[in-house]
Amino acid sequence: MSPEEYCQIWVPVLYKTLPEQRGYKARCIEELAKVTGFTEQSIKNWGANFEGHPDYVKVILKQANIINEFRQLFKKHFDDTT
Questions:
Q1: pTM of model > 0.85
Q2: 10: exposed, middle or buried (C-beta count within 10 Å: 0-12, 13-18, 19+)?
Q3: pLDDT tens digits along 27-39
Q4: Per-residue pLDDT tens for 17-63?
Q5: What pLDDT does 80 receive?
Q6: What is the DSSP code (8-state) at residue 21?
Q7: 38 contacts 45 by C-beta, under 8 angstroms
Q8: Which residues, 6 or more positions from 62, have their beta carbon under 8 angstroms from its beta carbon?
Q9: 53 burial via Cβ count (<10 Å: 0-12, 13-18, 19+)
């Protein structure tokens, strides 16, 4: 999963910030740093569209995506009081 794909899915969910909103890119970089272990500066160095990311980052982001999906599923299941 590319950094852009990951951010398009999870930044709106986790940070309530849409791609067209101010602060989206900063939240995206923050989230990518959180899940990859890279510094925010390193992620900024990947380029405007993150095209310079290491190849293995796609694997990390795919794993993070699956974990986030499970978290959302469990949250919905256990927070549902109806």
A1: yes
A2: buried
A3: 999 999 999 999 9
A4: 999 999 999 999 999 999 999 999 999 999 999 999 999 999 999 99
A5: 59
A6: S
A7: no
A8: 1
A9: buried
> Which token pair is 5?
């794909």
Short-list 19, 20, 49, 15, CA closest to 30: 15
d(CA 53, CA 51): 6
Crossing angle of helices 24-36 and 57-79, rounded to 10°: 100
Task: Please provide the DSSP assignment of 22-74 as one string.
Answer: TTHHHHHHHHHHHHH---HHHHHTT-TTSTT--TTHHHHHHHHHHHHHHHHHH
- Which tokens hold the place of 73? 């599923």
Own/partner long-range contacts of 10-14 (Cβ < 8 Å, ≥24 apart): 10/64, 10/65, 10/68, 13/68, 13/72, 14/68
